[in-house]
Amino acid sequence: MVAIAVGPDRPGLISEITSVIADFGYNIEEMDQVVMKEIFILALLINISMNIGALEEMRRKLSHRCSELGLEVTFYYAGSK
After folding, report:
1. Which residues pair with 43 in a beta bridge?
2. Is 22 helix (H, G, I), strand (E, B) or coil?
3. Which of 18, 70, 77, 79 is the most buried (most CB within 10 A)?
4. Phi then psi dihedrals of residue 77, to 5 deg
5. Distance (Å, whole) CA 40 – CA 14
6. pTM above 0.85, yes or no
7. Sign of the CA dihedral running 61, 67, 69, 73
C-alpha cells in the first residue's frame, strides 16, 4: 500500500505519521519526503501483509492523525487489499 500525506510543514510530522503505522506492526519499505514552498509531501510504501486484518483500523487512525496535523492523506493499492 502507498500512503501520501500533504500539507503545511512543521517539525515532527514524519515521527507523528510513522508512529501510527508502527503501532500496527507494519513495515515501511520505502519513504520519500520533500518540502516545496513550505508544503510537506510524504510518500510511504507500507508492507501490510503482516497484519492485513487491521488495515482498515490503521487507515482510520492514520487519517484521523493526519487530519489533526493539518494534512490530507490518500491511500493507493497495488494488487489486492
Report:
1. 4, 32
2. helix
3. 18
4. -125, 140
5. 10
6. yes
7. positive
- Of 79 and 47, the structure prediction assigns the larger pLDDT to 47
All cell numbers assigned to 4: 501520501
Q: 36 phi and psi, to 5 degrees?
A: -125, 115
The conformation of residue 81, written as its DSSP 8-state character, comes to -
pLDDT at 80: 52
Laid out side by side, the sheet with 39-47 consists of 27-36, 39-47, 2-8, 72-76
pLDDT digits (tens, 9 = 90+) for 33-77: 999 999 999 999 999 988 888 999 999 999 999 999 999 999 998
3-state secondary structure at position 33:
strand
